[in-house]
Amino acid sequence: MSEPAIGIVTVSDRASRGVYRDLGGPAVVAELTRMLCVPWRPECRLVPDEQPLIEAVLRDLADGVGCGLIITTGGTGPAPRDVTPEATVAVCDRMMPGFGEAMRAVSLRSVPTASLSRQTAGIRGRSLIINLPGKPAAIAECLGAVFPAVPYCLDLIGGPRLETDEAVIRVFRPKSLASP
Amino acid sequence: MSEPAIGIVTVSDRASRGVYRDLGGPAVVAELTRMLCVPWRPECRLVPDEQPLIEAVLRDLADGVGCGLIITTGGTGPAPRDVTPEATVAVCDRMMPGFGEAMRAVSLRSVPTASLSRQTAGIRGRSLIINLPGKPAAIAECLGAVFPAVPYCLDLIGGPRLETDEAVIRVFRPKSLASP
Amino acid sequence: MSEPAIGIVTVSDRASRGVYRDLGGPAVVAELTRMLCVPWRPECRLVPDEQPLIEAVLRDLADGVGCGLIITTGGTGPAPRDVTPEATVAVCDRMMPGFGEAMRAVSLRSVPTASLSRQTAGIRGRSLIINLPGKPAAIAECLGAVFPAVPYCLDLIGGPRLETDEAVIRVFRPKSLASP
Known about the structure:
Three copies of one chain form a homotrimer. Chain A is an alpha/beta fold. Helix content of chain A is 38%, strand content 17%. Chain A is globular. The mean pLDDT of chain A is 95. Chains A and C meet through strand 4, helix 5 and helix 7 of A and helix 5 of C.
């Protein structure tokens, strides 16, 4: 199987207990399906808001499954149980502050509570990990804000080559592979 | 006394020595008075730019007085004596990067030196701590940029319920209390 | 010699091996020459993407040469060899998050991959260190975004007084020297 795996991690106490259906994970899968025009396969996980469990899932998807891109949804707010950013920082070698900034700036045009999101992004080895909010509407908005830079980022860290449907979203790859 | 206490901390060597009058603290009180339509009481403090003293005041207002919201003014610039952000980071359990970003982005439309502000925000237990600049004009601008998200943030961390005068500022509370 | 020295550090494996010509350093010199109307002298360095070497150069320019302003170019991307931000954090006493935010926000209007830049800025003693990207076009854009605040920042940290050609770029100095 040569198609790249993309990790999609829903972080939610309630969804993981079956109290309600996971809407975030399927929304990420749907959005990626709409954008990507290369074969890929989703590796979906559902975890409660427990930092050690989230970290274990992220490590396994990066190092075990070999996902070049891992997207989390949920657990980025200010509530005491929201620990997805902390788990992300804990497993990453280096952080990418521009992702959280760009996503909050775009969301802020829709809702003033976008400032409450602590979502971040970082790199673990050859994997880019991006936190998205839990709400489906915010997921599409945030992915749209940063995805044009994701394929080039994966090129630079040795991840899989992603191509998108240009009618949906146009990615940007500088001509040279010199790093920005 | 059931009205919530809001901590207002002026950080200034000169104002605390009486060299000049504290303008920042009263400007925060005036702005909150203009915005809020629920009973509340200000708990005002005035401290010099000494990190241990600022930390002690923040801890006391959060844990002792039980302020769900604490606003500092002053000490956020690049000068060697400016240590309010460091004191804030030291007492918080988790940081809220979106507050500093949003306040700098708004201030940047007025003055290019907004980039010099190192103001941040974070959560200590059930208290939200927000740094504001020292200048009265910048105080109103920065509070206006983030206050629409503050009441919902306090809801999520177990703080007091704040309501605003919608003719002055409209707060945003998503319908569900699910965290962003 | 009383003119202030400005450190200009090109961080690039390839340029330092002579594989290609350093374009970033000369672009920074050209841009500063265009903006400044006071005498100054460039102190140029060229280092490979090795964190200890970059740190050593930054420390020498700040503490040895006494540069009040040090500008790096290159090494801010997500590639494994890009470590300029890490070196900058390691040598600084305090970080200036508003610089990276403002530069990414401006660059994002030109290229979506601006989000990939991890560039930051910080203060070491009396020296302000600013990371710029490696590409000449991005250098002018980023410098233009933050330079209006740089002279006032140097005033506040005890650095040299810089004046600019107002026809090229207008700097902003609040009337009082009270810190923001």
